[in-house]
Amino acid sequence: MSRLLYLLLIMGCFGIGALLSPLAHPSELPQKIRLAAEDSWPPFADAQGMGLSHRLVQRAFASESIEVESLVVPYNRGLILTEQGKVNAVFNVARQQSTETRFLFGSEPLFLASASFYQLKDKPPIAADKWSLPPGSRIGIVRGYEYGDEFDRLPNIELKVADNQYQLLNLLLTHKLDAVVMYDKVAGEFLHTTGVATEVYPVFSNHTSELFLAFDKGAAESAALAQALDRGLKRLKQSGEYQKLLADIGSTSRRD
Q1: Phi (first) and psi of residue 177, to 5 degrees
Q2: Which residue, 16, 54, 142, 184, has fewest beta-carbon neighbours within 10 Å?
Q3: Nearest residue to 233 (alpha-carbon basis) of 210, 207, 251
Q4: With 0-12 CB in 10 A as exposed, 13-18 as middle and 19+ as buried, what is 186?
Q5: 51-69 pLDDT, tens per residue?
Q6: How do 111-120 and 103-104 pair as beta strands?
């Protein structure tokens, strides 16, 4: 029997896919992925590549036999690297309208995080809530961070953008800002480590967000990786390990 006839018989019995399947498996997951992690967001992610987000993501992917390599960079840089396809995903991204258009998300958030407006204690409260801020309020945020869909609609604010949390606090302490918006767990860490916990306090809430690992929207494997992370996070929750990790953060954080 000629080779051509033999191949035609095999294709007829098993389909073309049987012949092609050893060559390409687009749905297969990579054994190792590279993620961008922020360098200055304790207790979730710090300059040493440690924190709650690292532990959650590494253990969730480990249950799917996927090794995680973390690239520690400033947050905004992590977003850009993910969009450029230089990493598979970036840590701790709030799922909101502005990020839905840029990244692919799974269904399981890493955790919830609340943010508040902070100001100096030696000044009267700037307002009763974020919607009643007086005209010309100088409000500081960190470049690239998400602050909820409502934030862009707030009236009366003059937005000042800092490159990191230290710069943000310095602008507040030197009276160049009336208030800053910080995520509460992160604020607790920074106010403690910088020794200004007695000088700065939260005056009212900004928002609460679900934070995710945000995947490169243009990569073919991103959807499968997001599903793998979802499965891993669900396993951690079912085993009780997820709850223990969050409880450890709650007990060590400087404020809730």
Answers
A1: -130, 150
A2: 16
A3: 210
A4: buried
A5: 999 999 999 999 999 999 9
A6: unpaired
